[in-house]
Design goal:
Elements: H1 21-31, H2 52-59, E1 67-69, E2 90-95, H3 97-101, E3 115-119, E4 127-129, H4 146-149, E5 150-151, E6 154-155, E7 168-175, H5 176-180, E8 191-192, H6 194-204, E9 213-217, H7 220-227, E10 239-240, H8 245-250, E11 255-258, H9 276-285, E12 288-291, H10 296-305, E13 309-313, E14 324-326, E15 330-332
Helix pairs in contact: 1-9
Length: 333
Amino acid sequence: MRRGGAVNRQDPEGALNRHDPEGAIAQAAKECSNWGRWGEDDRLGTVNFLDEAKRREGARLIRRGVSFSLSQRFDIDGPQKGWRRRTNPVHTMLDTGTDAALGNQGLPHGIGGADDVIAMPLQCSTQWDGLGHIFDHGKAWNGRPAEQVVTSDGDLVTGIEHLAAHIAGRAVLLDVGRICGVDGELPDGFAITEEHLTATAAAHGVTVGRGDLVLVRTGQLARVRRDGWGDYAGGPAPGLSFTTASWLHTSEIAAVATDTWGFEVRPNEFEDAFQPLHQVAIPHIGLLIGEMWDFEALAEDCAADGVHEFWLTAAPLPITGAVGSPVNPVAVK
């Protein structure tokens, strides 16, 4: 269904100097810094906002008991094209039914079994970016020297395992694609501003604030499923504008996730830039970012019943020292 008209890829008048990404990043980093907010030893960043009270609030949102997996499948037919050696998952069987039937497993009294292994980059499909994933001028989250945080042994300080028990609470779906797009989708290069986010929240009748897990649907995943992966993994995409850095900071959300590869609008809004919003959001705000999530079934249900808030659990795999993790988020309404 068509909802309004897609707004072009916009730059709020005077908000950005497209020729000076370095200056804009430095200013946003200074204005949005959470360094020291939770002490010098902090390992959780904005997930600190997701406390026990917020989880109780989220649990009270379960009314119907219906659940939705927000994960893409992890298989060889995924979106990766080899950028920075990222590949799709390779699934290999170690033991099969054929081995059991032929008696090759050497097990007693007729028992047999199957076993398998998977090899994949941790950020090849639905995933969280950990706090050790991005640096700014050699500084990691909380101002730590990057070389002392992430080494060849992994993230020694903010490894993704520290978040494993925490990501569960109230979540809100902001279906910007449905509210601001055409036929439920935003075009590639569409920069989602604070105004789009707040207008979408108002249209859904929800508030967004401290400790919330915010899910932003652009509709790009629906489009590539229809038309083919194309450049989904790294190419042009709708996404958050660099100008939303202040909103991400002042709203005090615990985490944000999108249905796109890179969370922020691509091409980026500056000349000669690469993921500048990441450069502020992760090492300075300490924000947990999810990418390549699948909101389609959930979005249809939210549109049908008018309820865009729900319980969400989305624990990363506690892989010691990892700077990202696959995840199977589950929303329950």
